[in-house]
Amino acid sequence: MTIRLAVIDNDSGFLTVLSKRAEAAGWELRQSGGSIPPRDLLAMKLNALLVDPAAVSEDGWEYLATVCEALPDLGLVVCTGRSTVAQRVRGLRLGVDDWITKPCHPEEALARIEAVSRRRRRGRAESDAGPLIAGELAIRPDQFQAFVSGASLDLTRREFELLQLVAEARGQVLERETIYQRVWGYAMAHGDRSVDVFIRKLRQKLEKRSPDWSYIHTHFGVGYRFDPEPVGGIDVGAPPREPILEAGSEPSVEPASQAVHSSFTAG
Fold first, then answer.
1. CA 138 to chain centre
2. 216-263 tens-digit pLDDT
3. Where in the chain is the domain with CATH 1.10.10.10?
4. How far is it, in rounded angstroms, from Cα 54 to Cα 126?
5. CATH for 4-127 (1.10.8.60, 1.10.1060.10, 3.90.420.10, 3.40.50.2300)
6. How much of the chain exceeds pLDDT 70, in percent?
7. Which of 165, 177, 136, 154 shows the shortest CA–CA distance to 225?
8. Of 45, 156, 49, the residue nearest 93 (C-alpha)
9. 194 by DSSP, 3-state: which?
10. Region 132-230: CATH code
11. Are the beta carbons of 133 and 141 closer than 8 angstroms?
């Protein structure tokens, strides 16, 4: 498939080889030795962005957070020098799709970019199918948001991904480890309670907008099951209400909760 890729890096040798391999594969590649504003990235209609945070003109972490927040559909791959586990985990939690450590083979970098782009395209194809209706909820993958009678639940991206995952597995019990692997993208550490914390936040927002329905059920010691059920004998015969969204409305995005250091250091 043809991939539109932008690369932010100042390693001339790596860029030369990468460009030749990308051209041979029929990709469209744009290079920059410094940060590219999100509005310019949007205008490029990219499939993916490969970036070395050490090459951007401002704070690397801040730039990654800005791109992840402004362009949630863009595949983002970090390719940088030596890094710690904490740095890689932080990047993935910000919204980075993959992290490659230099020195790396350009062919591997292109393969990882292709994999990220393929997953993103598959996700967009699924979102084109329309909203997922459950109880009073209308879950909109195209907006990374869920609505009740047109009122947004104001979900963060991580909360939405969690809701979408359990809703698509409606009626099935998903283990905590499975949820963590599929939403966070890596294995859950022993004692990590992130899934429980995010489920609690989701329930609070669901109860606020849709108090007459119970959506997420706990299976103690195992995980969670999504299965909308009316509370107190509510009449479920009426069809669910479609969300009425105002023209040009945008889903709210919660700022990244991670603190951003004043500089990106790969050491």
1. 19
2. 999 999 999 999 999 875 444 444 444 444 444 444 444 433 433 444
3. 132-230
4. 35
5. 3.40.50.2300
6. 83
7. 165
8. 156
9. helix
10. 1.10.10.10
11. no
